[in-house]
Amino acid sequence: MEAKLSFWEIIKSTPLEKSYRLSKQYDANIYLKREDTQIVRSYKIRWAFNAIRSLSETEKKKWIVCASAGNHAQWVAFTCSTLKIKWTIFMPKTTPEQKVYKTKKFWWDFIEVVLVWDSFDDAYNEARVFEKKSGAIFIHPFDDEKIIAWQGTIGLEILEQMNEKPDLIVCPIGWGWLVSWIISVMNELSPSTGIIWVEPSWAASMKHSLLTWKNNALHKIDTFVDWAAVKKVWDQTFEICKNYWLKVYDVPENRICTTMLEYLREDWFVLEPAWALATDALKDLKDELKWKTVVVIVSGWNFDFERLPEVKERSLKFEWLKKYIVVNFPQRPGALREFLNVLGPNDDITRFEYLKKSNKDKAPAVIWIESNDRNNFLEIFEKLKKIWINFEDITEHDMYYDLLI
Questions:
Q1: Are 271 and 305 part of one and the same domain?
Q2: What are the C-alpha distances in Å from 362 to residues 40, 338, 356, 404?
Q3: How far does Cα 396 stand from its chain's mean position?
Q4: Which has the closest alpha carbon to 10: 50, 70, 54?
Q5: The last residue of a domain, from among 293, 313, 333
Q6: Residues 74 and 187 in one domain
Q7: CATH code, domain carrying 153
Q8: How far is CA 15 from CA 36, 110, 128, 297, in A?
Q9: How far apart, in whole angstroms, are the C-alpha atoms of residue 259 and residue 254?
Q10: How far apart are CA 256 and CA 395, in angstroms?
Q11: Which helix (DSSP H) or strand (DSSP E) does residue 354 occupy?
Q12: Number of domains the chain is built from
């Protein structure tokens, strides 16, 4: 009976909600397609359920294997549990603990989780090796016609829920499966609707490939934005996307953190980095948005709250509201007092640590300073120069920052 469940018995039609905060901010009508309200907090359940449900009865008796950066694992787990199918999931060791925990907790009777290496690409390669050795059925996270097709249901819902056709739809790229099918649906049913693609700056694989007109892999990426940070978009989705001359925006990872905190503070809900990506792009689109109707696809409450301090730290760094400096204090009476005197009433030292305690001439220290105005740091640095205290701002120095912060 369970194997015969229909798509709409499991998958809900998600709400399209107007964001009055964003609409006011951008002088536009901004709507959020709330895929985070799905049973597993992401739109990805749409494809996982359809792909597994469409397997033959013989295939369903075999072992299922897949690879995931965190979200796909949960949707496959939910579906396999519903249909009583055993499966193995390969995930990178860098997957946020919250996603690993949720994958294991609710469907442990049917799963085996294997953590490997650092990125999704590593997990994918290991899963394909497992497939060949064991004869398991591999459920691709996106590069599959059955998977891609069911992403179109989001586009259809948007058109059904609106009284007018949207001027723009903004969504993240990742491997490209979602944007590729939304492109197809809108080209058929609403060709006047523009589509904005968004990806993180340090994993701009689609933008890079479109510039060369060839689906190339990046050598190195920043994996902070989870599934949206990929070295290479998938071939099938690239072939669909490259024929549409649409704009691709890449946005800074640290600014995405600011957008996440804005959602938490103003709207009381939490988006994981990949799903704050689309909203963050509105900051670069401000001049294009005025008086337009815009749909932003948001999804994914699968956020590990242990990452929240990192999110705050990255946001403060991007907004220039926090600086990390190394100060080489001269070993003379009053040097520390002179340093403290350059700080204003709205500047705060959040960490002070001497690096070397045995040098009689110098006393280097790492100091973290927060302020409520980015311009205050210009004044602080000018005052330090005038009193002849040597310092170095390491906030944007990646090697020092990673070693000391």
A1: yes
A2: 56, 15, 8, 19
A3: 21
A4: 50
A5: 313
A6: no
A7: 3.40.50.1100
A8: 10, 31, 36, 11
A9: 9
A10: 18
A11: strand 347-354
A12: 3
Same domain, 33 and 157: yes
- Indicate whether 240 and 360 sit together in one domain: no
Q: Which of 89, 109, 138 is the endpoint of a domain? A: 138
Residue type at 320 in one-letter notation: W
- pTM of the full predicted structure? 0.80
pLDDT tens profile 77-127: 777 877 888 889 899 888 877 778 877 765 667 788 899 988 778 899 999
For 329-347, what is each residue's pLDDT tens digit? 887 888 889 999 999 999 9
- C-alpha count within 13 angstroms, C-beta hemisphere, residue 244: 25
Query: In this structure, which amino acid lies at residue 38?
Result: Q
If DSSP codes are grouped into helix, strand and coil, which group holds residue 229? Answer: coil
Helix residue spans in 213-345 (DSSP H):
235-241, 253-262, 273-281, 286-289, 308-318, 335-341
Q: List all residues 6 or more positions away from 6 whose beta carbon is below 8 Å from its beta carbon.
A: none
Gyration radius of the chain over CA positions: 24
- Expressed in angstroms, the distance from the first to the final Cα of the chain is 55
* Residue 28 sits in the same domain as residue 56: no
Q: Which domain holds residue 159?
A: 2-38+145-313
Together in a domain, 305 and 352: no
Residue showing tokens 């819902």:
157
Please write down the HEC assignment for all residues of 190-202.
CCCCEEEEEEEHH
